[in-house]
Write a structure and sequence with these properties.
The structure is a single chain. The chain contains 9 helices and 19 strands. With 346 residues, it is an alpha+beta fold. Strand 9 and strand 10 form a beta hairpin. A 6-stranded mixed β-sheet has the order 4-6-7-8-9-10. 36% of the residues lie in helices and 24% in strands. Helix 2 packs antiparallel against helix 3.
Length: 346
């Protein structure tokens, strides 16, 4: 009870209590938010989980790519010209695949960085990873391997070889997911929606594909782009001799798969070396880089530099990829070439 003659105003008590709560809030909110931020920063993600999610995302995107093609609903547009002067098409296959692949990864791991070739304003919060680890993957990769979420960068290509897709050259078409940790590719997934085949690898652990038993450099079969074959053919023949075979193909994912020993029945070209002499985007090459690394192979710029998958999407140094060969010896055969100074003209 209040002392005699003193009345406590209910309003005053309420104000006093609110002020007290406000002081406590300001005292502790900073501490709590700092602890929450530190907790978020410390969150780890398991690489096997990311691999299984990447496979699921690539297959999900591939279903959209195949559906749009079979329904003949491409609605093709052009994003403009590439630096080599080729048309850079965009279809509903690209967009629908992007929506599935991007959102299933972002919804499952919202704290990691995801870079996609395509961009879209559609938001789909309903897509979530099934949290299923395929049996083959579970058998091959049994240990946990966690990395800090902030060290992870994901690169996705919702439809590689879009030009060939519009031309109905479907064997070149892939969907790809790559996970880089501190800029180094550690997970690579290349899915062929029209062959229903998915190649995957976790660097330092295992893969469901392997290198072929032998490769040749005397002379090699070199796989190159369809968009400017003339100058690339001249370049590789200057490097490896006039008897070098230049295989023209679409899609960076397909070109990497051509270096590998794929299951019987796959209608694939077989190459010894993959060469690209102009700039190329990282979502085109990161998954292939990871696959090759997992098998002891290499993907570098024409000058032999490793590619950093943390920052800008553009790799401006060209590309040479090998597995089962002495990569350094291959690089030493390459003529001097500056990709930035060379442009293809029609």
């Amino acid at each position: 009870m209040a002392p005699m003659g003193i009345r406590l105003s209910p309003l005053g008590v309420a104000v006093f209590c609110l002020l007290g709560v406000g002081v406590l809030y300001h005292l502790y909110s900073g501490v709590i938010s700092n602890r929450l931020a530190a907790f978020r920063q410390r969150r780890n993600v398991d690489l096997r989980d990311l691999l299984a999610l990447s496979v699921e995302a690539a297959v999900l995107g591939g279903k959209e790519v195949k559906r749009v093609r079979e329904e003949n609903g491409l609605q093709e547009k052009s994003k403009g010209k590439t630096k080599e002067g080729a048309n850079d098409p965009l279809t509903m296959g690209d967009l629908e695949s992007h929506r599935k692949m991007y959102h299933i990864i972002r919804n499952t791991f919202p704290e990691i960085t995801v870079n996609s070739e395509e961009h879209d304003n559609v938001v789909d919060k309903s897509l979530l990873w099934s949290r299923t680890i395929p049996s083959e993957m579970a058998e091959k990769i049994t240990d946990l391997s966690e990395v800090p979420a902030e060290s992870v960068t994901v690169w996705i290509d919702p439809l590689d070889a879009t030009q060939e897709y519009t031309e109905n050259l479907l064997k070149y078409v892939t969907t790809m997911v790559c996970v880089a940790v501190d800029g180094k590719p550690v997970i690579g997934v290349i899915h062929q929606p029209f062959n229903d085949f998915t190649a995957w690898a976790l660097v330092g652990h295992d893969s469901n594909v392997q290198a072929r038993s032998s490769y040749s450099v005397t002379p090699p079969k070199v796989i190159i782009s369809r968009s400017h074959p003339g100058e690339v053919k001249n370049y590789v023949q200057e490097a490896f001799g006039n008897s070098t075979t230049a295989i023209q193909a679409g899609g960076a994912g397909y070109k990497v798969l051509s270096l590998l020993d794929l299951p019987a029945g796959e209608s694939m070209d077989q190459a010894d070396i993959y060469v690209h002499i102009t700039a190329i985007k990282k979502w085109d090459i990161c998954a292939g880089d990871a696959l090759l690394r997992a098998l002891g192979g290499h993907m570098t710029t024409l000058k032999g530099e490793e590619i950093d998958y943390r920052d800008t999407p553009l790799n401006s140094g060209g590309l040479v990829a090998t597995v089962g060969l002495d990569h350094k010896a291959v690089l030493e055969k390459l003529p001097a070439w500056d990709p930035e100074k060379h442009r293809h003209t029609h």
